[in-house]
Amino acid sequence: MTGEVAALLDRKGLKLGHYVGEFTTPGIGYIMKEAGADFVFFDMEHSGNSFETVQRCLRYFEAADMPVFTRVPSDRSDHIARALDAGADAIVIPMVGSAKQARSVLEKMKYTPIGKRGLALALANDRYRMQPVSQALAAANARTRFVALIETAEGIENVDEIAAVDGVDVLWVGHLDLTASMGIPGQFDHPDYKKALAKVLKAGQKHGLGLGRMVGDIPSGVGLAEEGWDLIAYNGDVWLLQNALRQGIDGIRSGYADVAKAAKKGAAKKTKKKAKGG
User: Fold this and answer.
1) Residue 269 covered by a domain
2) Domains of the chain: total
3) What is the 3-state secondary structure (H, E, C) of 41-63?
4) Is residue 252 part of a domain?
5) 25 is in which domain, residue-wise?
């Protein structure tokens, strides 16, 4: 199993992870593991990652025993089934807006008798293990998990019904898309947005689901954990590198400018003193 996603989601308490959409290097799983991450939010929707890239990267994460949430581009059957057949255990579906849509996703994710997923056994999804068909189907149905992205006004309106669907495991708020859908893009302090978050939190807690968010800074993560959000992705690979690089470069440039300014000032004082005959 890729990092035992099911075991991660069944574990109580705070789980911290990281968004990966750009840096699909062989060592990425080990880097995250060494940093203390509990999971990776691996993205296809807002990246150039193909299914071939996904299959390769899932092996990287598997080698590092890193649980993976794989966000596919849509709720289309070919997107869901191909990601699962490549070895994904947890599928993140964008813009889930209704219980009907959630049930449709589960029908595409699960094998018979729960759903109608096409059978492709003993491949990457089974880690190439040969086993009896009935055993393989039961094991796959038990381990595949559904992360519903709540990121539209419709999703907020129907979030309790979505959470009540048997087979939905996590409610994850897509904060930027949600504000855009509500007509308040980027206004994270808006009272309507805060009410929407409270509604998701209440629905998740009521139905015993995981609750996920992404944050870009430490105080935000601490605040969300205190509220009860238990799956928190700290920043994304591109933004984290860019911010750290900018901080370092700006710091060196600024520090050197201060040193150069002080040296120039000191040299000017010496020149002035010498001119006076000192």
Assistant:
1) no
2) 1
3) EEECCCCCCCHHHHHHHHHHHHH
4) no
5) 5-247
Interatomic CA distance for residues 56 and 38, integer angstroms: 20
Give phi and psi for 208, each to the nearest 5.
Answer: 70, 35
Nearest alpha-carbon partner for 71 in 18, 16, 147, 144: 147
CATH number at 59 reads 3.20.20.60
The distance from CA 231 to its chain's CA centroid, rounded to whole angstroms, is 9
190 contacts 179 by C-beta, under 8 angstroms:
yes
Confidence of residue 2 (pLDDT cuts 50, 70, 90): very low
Tell whether 259 is covered by a domain: no
Q: What is the pLDDT of residues 205-245, one digit of tens each?
A: 999 999 999 999 999 999 999 999 999 999 999 999 999 99
Q: What are 40's strand-pairing partners?
A: 18, 68
| Secondary structure letter of residue 250 according to DSSP | H
Q: Which amino acid is at 255?
A: G
- Alpha-carbon distance values, 116 to 126, 128, 174 (Å): 18, 21, 28
| Chain centroid to CA 152 | 17
Cβ pair 71, 43 in contact under 8 A? yes
CA distance 270 to 278: 9
In a domain, 32, yes or no: yes
Nearest-angstrom CA–CA distance, 29 and 20: 10
pLDDT in tens, 119-176: 989 989 988 999 999 999 999 999 999 999 999 999 999 999 999 999 999 999 999 9
